[in-house]
Amino acid sequence: MFDKDSDDLIFVNPWDNSVNLSNEERDFLKFAILKINDNRIKNFNPENIENLIKSNPAKYLRVPLVKGDLTSEIAIRGGWMNFIRSRFAMLSPSKLKERFDRAATNLLDDSQ
Question: Rounded to a whole number, what is the distance in angstroms from the first to the last CA of the chain?
Fold first, then answer.
């Protein structure tokens, strides 16, 4: 479902019948591409998508990704205090023992 020849993450064109896709994959890609471009482009007209893709495929088929960092983790956790609590919770003796036991078990299972 992705263009493997590109350095960027780009969907294949589901409106191109020469692309080998199942009907479900084609429907999903059409939905995703229309939704992404509707959010990305002001006054987006979905009826023009095929012409837009022909004019600039990389622009309209590109998958918008953003690298996550500490800020996004803080936002997901609901603020600094929840982030700090979750980090300190990982350092509690019971959590450390649980993580150590799980790592030791995995190590033993892999060696047998």
Answer: 38
